[in-house]
Amino acid sequence: MTASDGRLVGDLARAIDESDFAWSLVLVGEDQRDKLAALTSDLLNKPSTSGDGKQITSGYAYWGIGPTIAWAHACADPFYLVMKQSLDSFTRRWGRVRGRVGEGFHHVSFGVGTGHKDRLVLEHLLERNPGLLYVPVDMSSEMLRLGTQEATHRVGLRGHRVVPVQLDFSIPDNLAELRELIHRLVGDEPVLYSLLGNTLANFDQDDELLANLTALARPQDLFLLEVATTEAVNDDLAQDAVEEYARSRAYREFVTSALLHNTDLTINVDAVQFRGAVEGDRALKVKVVYQNQTGGDIMMMLPDRNRVPFPDRDTIRLYLTRKYARKALDGIVREAGMRKVTGTHSDFGVPRSSQGFGMDLLLLAPGEPVPAPRADDDVADVIWGN
Amino acid sequence: MTRIAITALTFGALAVAMALGVTWFVVSPPGDRWEPAVNSFALLAGITGIFAERWAAQREQRNQAIGSIRLEMARNRETLDGEAFSASASRGRRVYPRLVQSAVDSALSSGALSPHRDADLIDLLHRWRTAVASVNRRLELTEMLVFTSASEEKAEQFHTALHRANGFFQGVRALLDEAQAALGDPVRP
Ligand SMILES: C[S@@+](CC[C@H](N)C(=O)[O-])C[C@H]1O[C@@H](n2cnc3c(N)ncnc32)[C@H](O)[C@@H]1O
Prior knowledge:
The complex is a heterodimer. Chain A is built from twelve helices and 14 strands. In chain A, a hairpin with a 3-residue loop joins strand 8 and strand 9. Chain A is of the alpha/beta class. The termini of chain A are far apart. In chain A, strands 1, 2, 3, 4, 5, 6, 7, 8, 9, 12, 13 and 14 form a twelve-stranded mixed sheet that branches. In chain A, strands 10-11 form a two-stranded antiparallel ribbon. Chain A has two domains: about 35-55 and about 235-325, no CATH class; about 65-230 and about 325-365, Vaccinia Virus protein VP39 (Rossmann fold, 3-Layer(aba) Sandwich). Residues about 370-375 of chain A have low confidence and may be disordered. By secondary structure, chain B is mainly alpha-helical. Chain B has one domain (about 1-20, about 35-185). Chain B is built from six helices and no strands. Chain B has helices at about 1-25, 35-80, 100-110, 120-150, 155-160, 170-180. In chain B, helix 2 packs antiparallel against helix 6 (about 170-180) and helix 4 (about 120-150) runs antiparallel to helix 6 (about 170-180). The two termini of chain B are about 50 Å apart. In chain B, about 20% of the residues are buried. The interface of A and B includes residues 96, 377, 383 and 386 of A. Bound molecules: S-adenosylmethionine. S-adenosylmethionine binds near residues 62, 114, 117 and 140 of chain A. Chain B: Keywords: Membrane, Transmembrane, Transmembrane helix. Chain A: GO terms for molecular function: methyltransferase activity.
């Protein structure tokens, strides 16, 4: 890089910092046409009445301005318990684990969402590292813009220290590039990665995703993971989980917004169905599907203007989510090659929620479990074992 | 030493008096036998009286001891079945109630139980005593570790360890069942 290039970057940074206009510099990591093609191809899958054919995979559910606004609405809906409680209680839960994050950390956030949580994380990290770099990563540029603004609003982070990256983080090749980028930006300084708001649960291959994401962490880095949890797994509880989601109209509008914006279907929010199941002993699983209940076949126009049939009773899976069994968490973390540094759990203390449903916030570090935290379990066992 | 000497002296004197009484009875002419007979029977009543009195006192002492052990066991049962030790109890930090053993202690130390007749019970009570001391000590350690730890998770780990099947605590409950059964109490109220 020549001196004048350096000056250009410096000028750009200054222009952003000193302007009153809300400039944001976004690194776009992928060709958005490819994304559209992928979404289209997911909507061309074979008919299925069980939600296993056509689908809108995670990321696409939030892609575009419509879904972004719908998501922000849903998060503010008191009936959408998981998100509402997750946001409300985050301050407290983060307060319990943040003591274990040392000095000098940068922050990389996978899936910014509305940015409320990133803001709390940033406030804490900034106190210990004024030169902090904030890298929110999201597939949706609109979500990036919304979330980043909320996250950095009045926290005293200068504009050029924010590097939003538009990228689908479920693709391993993308992560390899992202890793390069981040390491170039921060050098050997430690990074706190985060995947919050039960985003992990939205992916079919959630274990694989977690392993890929945590693989970015070097020994000096930490990973903050937030997931919805349940004390037990059984069919009754799966039904309770379904009801928890089904209650919120704003949530139904959010899950259908991707269809509304990418197809020409006339959306009937009552055709949104929630199907609960038990996923082994690791989680309760909820599939949100949109079923053609019109009694006849429909032709649906896809983003590429192709018209494809959406037969009677056929479904489009709009969203996938889970509540992880708390007992299974340790195994999930271990399989991702991480160890738990500390964690905190909060129950949903509301009468409308099922007993034992809650949120867990885990602070993870790379590598095998070191003896220290294990020894804690052992102490309890040594004392009460026999 | 003095106790043995006094006992020997007392019983020796009684035995000699008894022997003399019997001899007196044998050698005295038939008409004069009333006096040595009365004398001998009075001595015999005196000797057996001492033993009867001792035996009754011991029995009463044993009954009292067993009664208070029973009460104590029932109290311990209440503690173990109580909120603090139930699996559904809140998982946070807490001070646990302790098991008590003063009745067992005093029964064992006062000798209210007979080493021959109550051998099994004594053995069981000794085991129970050790278990109670151990539980209380472990509870103390647990509280100390839980209260000095910054993470709430620690309390949960202990909660889990405490309620583990086949853990130490289950052993204590089983021992209490056994003790209550041995004392002739209904095991569960
Ligand atoms: C459930 S929201 C969580 C938002 C926020 N972290 C919170 O806790 O409130 C999921 C976020 O991840 C983003 N996202 C989901 N799948 C993604 C993918 N495959 N690649 C990039 N971003 C994705 C969505 O756009 C959305 O902002």
